[in-house]
Specification:
The complex is a heterodimer of chains A (94) and B (311).
Chain A: E1 8-10, E2 14-19, E3 22-27, E4 32-36, H1 38-48, H2 53-63, H3 68-84, E5 88-90
Antiparallel strand pairs in A: 1-5, 2-3, 3-4
Helix pairs in contact in A: 1-2, 2-3
Chain B: E1 35-41, E2 44-51, H1 53-63, E3 67-69, E4 75-81, E5 98-102, E6 106-111, E7 114-119, E8 125-130, H2 134-155, E9 159-167, E10 172-176, H3 183-192, E11 196-199, E12 202-208, E13 211-215, E14 232-242, E15 247-250, H4 253-262, H5 274-287, E16 290-295, H6 302-308
Parallel strand pairs in B: 2-4, 4-8, 10-14, 14-16
Antiparallel strand pairs in B: 1-2, 1-3, 5-6, 6-7, 7-8, 9-10, 9-11, 9-12, 12-13, 13-14, 15-16
Helix pairs in contact in B: 1-2, 4-5
The chains are: A alpha+beta (94), B alpha+beta (311).
Chain lengths: 94, 311
């Protein structure tokens, strides 16, 4: 379980760009280019600002028509996938 | 998920060199001879010196009228001798490949019969050490030149894209997709329908006063390109996919950018320059209509494609 105070940053081999609300993500270590949908792109964008996961969820619930419980479930699962895939890393000691 | 070229899986040069640690640290060595040649591509002049007469002959046979007499200013590459004993034996069944190693001021390249480097201080220039001669030299040269060109285009605001470039009387169309997407088939269709061919393998996108152009480069696959030495205005960009029926389908900018990045060799894996690739391709996509071009073998899509560019 990811603590809500956790913060994350993109891994060193990851390059990321927002294009019309969607995300273009390059993973150079494994040679992949991915496209994130608007929700995934926004989550990654907010994580990149250094906001804790709780702050990301608070912003997202204002921007998207979704209930807090559903948002938390889906967003946390997405962040866990980003961590598992090595796309983002938890910033220690914050 | 789209895959750029394979990522380095062993240490740099270990698959090709007996002593990878002895990779040349600077642009020096013994030239093959004193011959020089030049290419003018995408508004730049590329000058190669230190060549042997046999190299010049082999390059002229390969590239023909694109080649110019050497000398003068330009992006300079020095060609040096390498001892064939420095290289590991190559399994002739293995595909041609090479390693690239990126740093802030330099890109290093190692392969069978070749080591090379690009240096950015004070400005971009290269050096190529090879033991290859004759036709093998042409292969080595082309591998090096593609890497140099990809990086120079990036620096100039453009990009080198694995793609088919075709043209009509108004300009050029860039059609890209992964291996097997049908670039070669499409080039055959366009030619049969009266269109022109820029290249069926690699094309240079460059900007002139903020306007995108498609510039011919002397690299091609199955179809020899038409003689078209001048850059052409880029009319439209299409991601290729096969379909029973030909159609033009809108494509989201992010999808198109991601696909273009995956078709941009060498620089998409360069951590020091990939941001520039994203910027350059993003700028092009802001200025040129982009579509997914669904095409079939049975039906020519040339008129459809031209309509995408407003022709």
């Amino acid at each position: 379980v990811i603590p809500s105070t956790s913060t994350f940053k993109a891994a060193a081999d990851v390059r990321y760009r927002l294009v019309d609300g969607k995300g273009v993500l390059i993973r150079q270590r494994v040679g992949e280019v991915l496209v994130l949908n608007r929700v995934g792109a926004r989550i990654l964008d907010l994580l990149q600002t250094g906001a804790p996961l709780r702050g990301v969820l608070e912003t997202m619930v204002k921007e998207f028509e979704v209930g807090p419980a559903e948002l938390e479930r889906d967003a946390v699962a997405f962040v866990e996938r980003l961590v598992e895939a090595g796309i983002v890393e938890e910033v220690p000691g914050r | 998920v789209l895959r750029p070229p394979p990522v380095l899986v062993t240490g740099f040069g270990q698959a090709f060199l007996h002593e990878p640690d002895l990779f040349p640290a600077r642009r020096s060595g013994e030239p093959w001879d004193q011959e020089e040649l030049a290419f003018e591509l995408a508004d730049d002049r590329y000058v190669f010196s230190g060549l042997a007469a046999s190299d010049v002959q082999a390059l002229r046979a390969r590239y023909g009228p694109v080649l110019l007499a050497g000398g003068g200013p330009g992006i300079e590459t020095l060609v040096f001798r390498a001892d064939p004993r420095d290289f590991l034996d190559r399994d002739p069944r293995s595909p041609v490949r090479f390693d690239l190693d990126y740093s802030e001021d330099c890109v290093r390249l190692a392969g069978h019969g070749i080591v090379a480097r690009l240096d950015w201080r004070p400005s971009l220039r290269g050096a190529l050490w090879t033991s290859a001669r004759g036709r093998s030299f042409v292969g080595v040269f082309e591998n090096y030149f593609r890497v140099l060109l990809a990086h120079r285009l990036l620096e100039a605001g453009g990009a080198l894209v694995h793609s088919a470039g075709v043209r009509d009387e108004t300009g050029a169309y860039l059609l890209f997709g992964p291996s097997g997407a049908g670039k070669s088939t499409l080039c055959g269709q366009v030619r049969a329908a009266g269109g022109g061919l820029v290249s069926d393998d690699l094309n240079a996108v460059c900007l002139r006063e903020g306007r995108p152009f498609l510039a011919p480069v002397p690299f091609f696959g199955d179809h020899e390109p038409d003689a078209s030495p001048q850059p052409l205005p880029l009319r439209a960009i299409g991601r290729l996919s096969k379909s029973p029926d030909a159609s033009l389908v809108p494509i989201e900018p992010a999808e198109c950018l991601a696909s273009l990045v995956a078709c941009s060799p060498f620089v998409s894996l360069d951590p020091y320059r990939v941001d520039l690739l994203l910027s350059n391709l993003g700028s092009v996509l802001e200025r040129v209509p982009a579509f997914e071009l669904r095409f079939s073998r049975a039906e020519s899509c040339w008129d459809l494609l031209r309509s995408a560019g407003g022709s």
